[in-house]
Structure formats: structure tokens, C-alpha cells
User: Fold these one by one.
Assistant:
Number 1:
Amino acid sequence: MIPYGRQNISDEDVAAVVEVLRSDFLTQGPAVPRFEAALTAATGAEHALAVNSATSALHIACLALELGPGDLLWTVPNTFVASANVGRLCGADVDFVDVDRGNWNMSVAALQEKLQTAAAAGRLPKVVIPVHFGGESCDMAAIGELAKQYGFAVIEDASHAVGGRYREQMIGACQHSDITVFSFHPVKIVTTAEGGAALCNDTDLARRMEALRSHGVTRDAQQFQQQAHGPWYYEQVALGLNYRLTDLQAALGCQQMERLDAFVERRLALAARYDALLADLPVQVQLRSVEQRSAQHLYPVWMNPEQFDRTVVFEAMRSQGVGVNVHYIPVHTQTYYRQLGFDWGQFPEAERYYRGALSLPMFPDLTEAQQDEVVAALRRSLDQGRVAS
Ligand SMILES: *Cc1c(COP(=O)(O)O)cnc(C)c1O
């Protein structure tokens, strides 16, 4: 089976992890700050905090922004559940902003309209989380403008977008946001097995997130509220968690970061080749702006569900050895969110996209021969899945 995503692990990656295993520190040694330095160097952000998943990074980002009970967090339905769940984990209420047809990212028009209504009702969001779907950035300048106008904080969920660029700046530079979050899960762009990071340019936010990822404890004397008892002294200044990344993982991440640009270039080359190979097939590919560089985590296509039975196409692809996937089941239709009062029909663009969505294999080691196989299989599968009109 050709998978939809797969990590690339080199001999150097293996050696770097083994070296840590034989060293003094399996966790909280020198590799974590080295990995963080690689992240700030690659993005231009001032601070990077490595943690054990993107979900953890989103959680400490929300906590650092003091999201809590009575507050509101908005994100998109076309995302992984974690983007919304972190709001609930902070005790806040969650709502959604529909996506644009074509690039399937947060719609600025929908956001603006929802903000106007929310302002009139006195119920504005405290935090908005745009998600760079498939690696293609949302319109961050427009979202950043609205953030200033309406006074909300912005966390970019860039789980798909490490190595991508928005206009002149790398994603993660936080030019139009407060915090940007990356994921290092194996299907994403670079991996630490499990892992994530929160990036920002604000020293105070960085300090707070640093404490939150490790029990709310600090060893930085400048942050002590009490007189230090001695050289062993540490102080818990907030309520935090254990969200730390290990040195084993960070060593892998450091090695992977050296290939970040090569990974993204390879993904973009494969995407351009898919674009050409699919040109005569009845599927839509994601609209990507020429002002941006997608990190191309996914290669999603959309078939009109009135013309094709997506389930038939999905199963035909799998039976031909092509591991397609579907991103994403709209979050507001999940049982947990329906129990909170959401339901089908509320975010029609995300739902329309979902009904025809299919993610084709996309990862650096995908060969051109495999890609030809995927496209040939898609051609046959669409024939099988065409609904009688
Ligand atoms: C993968 C993903 C996450 C969660 O990442 P983890 O590192 O697995 O916690 C969050 N948001 C989006 C959009 C993702 O794709």
C-alpha cells in the first residue's frame, strides 16, 4: 500500500538518536535548546518552545493568552479536532468560522461577518485559531488586521506548514499573529515522532509558555517571587503540565530540520507534477496563492459529490493499493460538539468540501512511478464511482 504520508529517516537521524541514548541526558539535555534554535533560525521567530505535541503547544498557547471559562475561542471546522479541543480544555466556549471554497482555509469574509455580529451581541472571541490547511497559509494580513480592530489574539495552527512561507516571511515568524504552533508527528513535514512547538516574538508570552510546559516551575531567579532558599531552589509560579520534549526526540528533530528545505522542495515538485497529471480529471485541486509557498503537507483533491460517490472512489483507491485519506470530518459534526449544540448544516462550505474530499499520497520519498500509479488508480476509481445522472 502506498501510504498518504510517511516520514523520511536517514542514517544520520538514527545516529543522532543513538548518540543521545549513550549520553548523560535522555531528556532536558542540550538537544532541546539546539532544536529550538533551529526552529527560530528557520522561521525568524524570536522564541521557540519545544513540547511533546502540537496539541500541547496549542494548549499552553491558549493558557499563556489566559483563555479561560467565560471566554470564546474560534477556529475552523476543516481541521483536526485538537484545534478546537484546546479551547474546551481551558474551560472556554468554542465556535467555528466557515472556510473559503477553493483553498478550504478560514474565510476572511465569514470571519468579518461573524465578528460584526459578535460585536453587536457583546460576545467577541478572545482567541482565533486559523489553520494553514495542507500547508497553504491563511490570509494572515487580513486576519491580523481584524485582530487589531476587534482585540482578539491569534494562534496560527501551522501543524501542516513548517517550511512554508506567507508573502515575505516564513510561517512561524508570527508577523500577523501572537503565537504559531507546529506539529512534528511522522506524517507532517519534519518529525520528532511525537512533538510540537510554540513560537512567538513576545518575551513575556515565551516565559509563560516555558513555565506551563513544565509544571509552572521556573529556575529563572528573575521570575522568583520569594527569596531563593539556596542553589537548589526552584519556584512554582503558575499551574502547569508536563509537556516536555525529550532529548532523544529533539536530536531527531535537529537532524530533520537540516533537510526541511529539501523536504518542502520535493513536496512542491510532486505537487506540481500532480497538478499536471490531474489536469484532465474531474477533480479540483487546492487553490494556492502565488504570493505564498505552501509546505504541501497534504495533496487534497475535491470531487463533486453530486457526480461521484466518494466512498466508492475511496474504497476503489484502497483496493488498488493507494492509501488515500480524508481531511477533515468537520469538527462541529463530531459527537462531542453535537452534544454541545452544534449540528450538520451550520458550516456549509466545510461540509461541502468534506463530502468530496480525498487526500492523495504526498511525502518526500514518493516516487514518480508511484505517483503515476496513484493517478492511474484515481482515473479508474472515478469511473467506478461516477453516479448515474
Ligand atoms: C496534526 C495536527 C494537530 C495535532 O498535532 P499533534 O502533534 O499530533 O498533537 C493539530 N492541528 C492540526 C491541523 C493537525 O494537523
Number 2:
Amino acid sequence: MIPLFKPHIDAATIAAATEALELGWLGMGSFVKEFEDRLARFLELPPDRALVAVNTCTSAIHLSLRAASVGPGDEVLTPALNNAGDFQAIELCGASPVFVDVREEDLMLDPESVERMMGPRVRALIALDYAGFPCDLSPIREITAARGIALIEDAAHAIGTRRAGRMIGADADWTCFSFDAIKTLTCIDGGAIVAPPGDMGEELRAARLLGMTQSSDVLYSNRRAGSYDIPAPGYRYHLANLHGAIGLSQLDLLPTFIANRRSYAESYSRLLGDVAGIVTPLPSTRDVSLFAYVIRVLGGQREALRAHLAEIGIETGVHWLPGNRFTRWRSVRGAEGLRVTDRIGDEIMTLPLWSFMDEDTVERVASGVSSFFGSLVS
Ligand SMILES: *Cc1c(COP(=O)(O)O)cnc(C)c1O
């Protein structure tokens, strides 16, 4: 079976995990601090942008929304084509997700739909870098700036992607990353928030540790704080040392992960570009860190193609079922009339992509796809 995702766990990652376990300080500690520092450097963050590691991207989105003062009765705009974690994080604040449509050409936020769904209760907007491509932020930023609402970039797919030459991380007010089990860089579970310019670091560092304000330097050097205060709500969202150590070992290989994935994606596009019946993703992968290779299957054939591929040992996925198809969000504002989302929701299909595939595997998958259409016409 060719799996859809396959995390790269090598001897270095296992050694890093062993070292963290043998250290005996299992909570938040020195490896987390080092992971934050190295990640901030990798992302080329300006010094006025704090990066805070947390246990998941869902937590990162939740803390960003909270820090942006999203609360009960508020609304948050998000593409319906997004991870359910974002919708749940919005609801954790007591707010409601409002669904916005995507553009057909890149499956990312449609600024016209954003304008249409804007309303007096909207406090924030989440923009997603789908599959790892950079979303077109400038028209979106104009809207959020004019209305004074927070712009949160969900960059869970886009670690290492550049937008107009600039590493994604400091373009929106808030940027959130995921390092969960299947993401390009994994901590097994993990996430990070990049805060707006200014001094938000302390507030976020407290919020991830039950609201405890204490000197981070103490924990960062694997010691317990002598005393602390709790002035505000907080959560159990910190990253543990083990996960920080695993993330650090993965960071060493991240440039290779990114280059490999891009090359496999380019092979897919070369091999599949002429297959009638599918649409391949945007041709240019320059500066893109690809998390997923998503094609669109036309003519109502997606499920038949998925069954065909499963039969010949190729796993595929759907990222994602749009939010308005889940019971929980069927009737939120914006759930109806999502012209593009409702159509592409039946067409999108994710092909296997990992950091160390090989060209043979890419070719096997591609010929599995084209053989399906070959057999359909014959
Ligand atoms: C994976 C993912 C999340 C959730 O990340 P976790 O770390 O699993 O909480 C959120 N948004 C997007 C776009 C994702 O792909």
C-alpha cells in the first residue's frame, strides 16, 4: 500500500527523542526554547514578532483568536474549505464561524465573498495557505485593515513557503503553524503562533500554561518557578520537551523535505498535466513548501477513481469535506450558497506526498490515475 502521508522518522529523530526522555525534564523546557529560537530564525522573523510554541495548531488558533479579543457573540470569517480545528477553535471562544467561498483558480479565500459575508459582529478573519501555496493576502488585508479586524493566517500547510520572496510568518497579524503527525515538519503533535508586532509574547506564554505568569527563563532552563501569579484565563497548551526535541531534529532536514516534495509535485504535474478529466494544482511551485498534492476530479468520477486507486494499493484523501457538510456547521451564516466550495467539495482528491518518496512511487501513483481514465474511454 502506498500511504497518503508518511512522516520521516530517522535515527536522528529517535536519538533526539531518547535524549529528551533521558534528560528527565518532561514538561516545557530547554528543547522547547531551542525549538522556538531555531524556528524563528528559519522563518526569518523580525525581532518585534514573538514566536510561541504550543501543543497543536488548533490551540494556536484558539490563543490567537482570544488574544485578538474574539468572544461570545462574535463571528469569525473562515473559508469553509478549512480544517475542522479552526471551526472548533472559533467556537471555543464562544464565537461562530461564518463560511466564505474560495476562488476556483487556487481554492483560497475569495475577497468578494469576504466582502459579502462581512457584518457588524465579525471580529476576525482566518486566511488559509491551502496545500502550502501562499494565499493572496493583499486584497484580504485591505478589507481587514479597513474594518479594524484581526487577520489570522493559518499556515499549517505552509512552513517554509515564501510569498513574494518573504518567508510566511510575519505577513498577517497572527500566523499559526501545525507540527502534527502528518505535517511537513512533525513534533508528533505541536504548533506555533507568531504574534503581531509588539510585546504579546509574555501574554501568550502565560496563556499556554494555565495563565501562570512567571519567568519563562526558569522553565526554559528545566527548573520549576518558585512563585507565579494568574491574572487571566489560561489553558494547558504548552509544548513538552520531548516534542520540542523531535521538532528540532526535523528542522535540520526541513529544507530537504521542502525541496523533495516540490520535485515530486512537479513530477506529478508533468505526468498528469495532460490527463483529461482532472485539474492539477497551480503550475508554479517556486518558493512553495508543499504539504499536499491536491487534484480535482471532474465529471463526478472522484469516488470511482478513489476506489480504483485503493484497489491497486494507493491511498488517497479528501482535504477536506467542506465545513458546511458537517452536522455541527450545516446552518451557520454563510453555509448556503458557497458556489465554488460546494462544487469542488466533490472534486478535490489528495494524492500521496511525503518528504522521502521516490520517483518510481510518484510514477506508480500517476499511472494509476491515468489508467483509470484510459479504461473509462476504452
Ligand atoms: C492540521 C491543520 C490544523 C490543525 O492542526 P493541529 O496541529 O492538528 O491542531 C489546522 N489548520 C490546518 C489548515 C491544518 O491542516
